[in-house]
Structures
1.
Amino acid sequence: MKLSRPSAEIFVPDQVPLEGALSRTTHLGVGAHHDDLELMAAHGILECFARTDRWFTGVVVSDGAGSARDFEYQAFSDEQMKAVRRAEQKKAAYVGEYGAQFLLDHPSAAIKDKAELVVQQELTEILRAARPTVVYTHNLADKHDTHVAVALRVIDACRALDPAARPERLIGCEVWRDLDWLCDADKVSMPVDRHENLLNALMGVFDSQIAGGKRYDLATAGRRRAHATYFESHGTDQHTGLIWGMDLTPLMHGGEPGAYLGALLQRFEAEVSSRVQRLR
Ligand SMILES: [Zn+2]
């Protein structure tokens, strides 16, 4: 497979030939940055962990150049930081037993540029080779521009496939803003109960971000636990960890993403307003 950026890379942790590594994919995660997959697509990683019939393939779209840095990493140049983040992502792919890990290495500006089609085309190629059943990406209500741009490129990449070749499910996941606000009927529920040690390890390898002053490891574990406990006010906890998703499946086949998101927001508004009306 030919990737557009000269510095792009495909890492196969168990070193099987690339074609076989990709064709065994069942779950695909497409994230903007190094560590987004482990944060948002942990459900897919766990579904495939230690299985021979399911494989998770990861795609990191950006180059990690603009990363925050502190402590050991404070004096690192953008190039050094990119190398560190790339190495961290490979560690996660190894620990999580991914089938393959793409490092597409695009600058954020290219991902956000609507006129730049190369990211979408590359994602279409990856989808053609991997033929995943489920795809995890960012959700449309995330507050990071690059995350939302990646979600939109994934939607367009799916639309470029023949309808029969599209994944069965496309899920927008939580990073910068959680999805607790979605009406319960609109939530995709992704339990992450097992292998807590593995989930902690997957977040822990991203030392450059955590040492850089952001405790993504603790915050991510806390968010999952909070979702599990605060979902049901009248029942005992059914899960020890939950990730919420926004179902983006209909958008693979058509429709305006902005209008789709607007309808979800309207349902949320109607739900909270009607409760106040009813109780006042
Ligand atoms: Zn990110």
Note: The two ends are 61 Å apart (CA to CA).
2.
Amino acid sequence: MRICIHRGSKQIGGSCVEIENCDQRLLVDFGLPLDAEENHSQYLPQISGLDGSDPSLLGVLISHPHLDHFGLLAHISPKIPVAMGAAARRILGAAVPFLPGNWPIPSGGWNYQSGKRFNIGPFCVTPFLVDHSAYDAYALLIESSGKRIFYSGDFRSHGRRATLFERLTENPPQNIDMLLLEGSSLGRLADSQQFPTEKEIENQLVQIFSSTEGLLLVHTSSQNIDRIVSIFRASKRTGRKVIIDLYTAAILEATGNANLPQSAWSDVALYVPQTQRLQIKNNAWFDLLKRHSTNRIFIEDIKHLSNRATLLFRPLHRFDLERGECLSDAIYIYSQWEGYWEQGAYDMVKDWLERYSIPKLSTHTSGHASPSELKNLVKMLSPRKIVPIHSFFPEKYPELFPKVEAHNDGEWWEI
Ligand SMILES: [Zn+2]
């Protein structure tokens, strides 16, 4: 078996690995670099058969629905099958119509079931559901000709699905020849430090919520389902209703998980911002709107609810909230990666907060394993070799783990 990291040996984002055996090939992840600019096709790795003309390219395995792992799929032939979780596939299908630009809806292909092996040509794949900030995320065991590669994907053990990590550690796959290990936290967190747990985030939110007089504007990703649950639980504990928009309602529905907050729940309300109303009209999404309208409210209801509501804020809400005069004593809580804020992605929100003198607070935890969580995975898998991927600091691996073998982007090697 031969393997090549096309992108990701020295960076976070844009992950893509190619595995070859018996003249057949598989790709593992097909991500967009985090710093990608316009014209995404310029980031396509040099891989033959992306146009669907080479049957030796059997398919693409996507670990989870984050853009830096699947974002280039729009630029390959739809004839190439794509493997991923069934819920992840539904989430992408639900999200794409709302997003600007050319985002991919993956072609058909294999749907993962955690722990269930399946064959693709000479390869045998076993997906393992993991705890991550993306819903329906997997680590992947790939076997061929007696060799075994374990691809960690992105994972953690401090989220709401930490038991998945425990389950994996209790019964780990044996005889791993090579572990491709993500290292997002290296260089960002000291080796001995831990990220807060998602439960701790919920408790921090409870403290903020209970001392706020006005409307809460909580800004997070609608696809970070763990965080939405934390916001929902904190709201429930402080007597607040959670107000979602149609995009979030569609994503929550697409999880197919009736235990997660849904638009029809009595402590959830749907508010459709003006820009989304236009989108609905232009695209005739009337069935979708109707399906989520059980608890629909309007801007005057938000003003009236005020300190009994938490709005899952998106920048497009600004104009509605101004017009509806909903902002007295409001607090804005930024609850996602600080990097987006620091890089200026939300400068329009920053200016708006200043204009209305709305205080900004932040609370967040990482979707990635801390160095000690990474060590736990290494200890339980006890792989023959560890290859750095998805890290800006591959040179730190040998300080933390045994048997590290670093490879460069574009370099092929034999297992
Ligand atoms: Zn991820």
Note: The chain is about 30% helix and 20% strand.
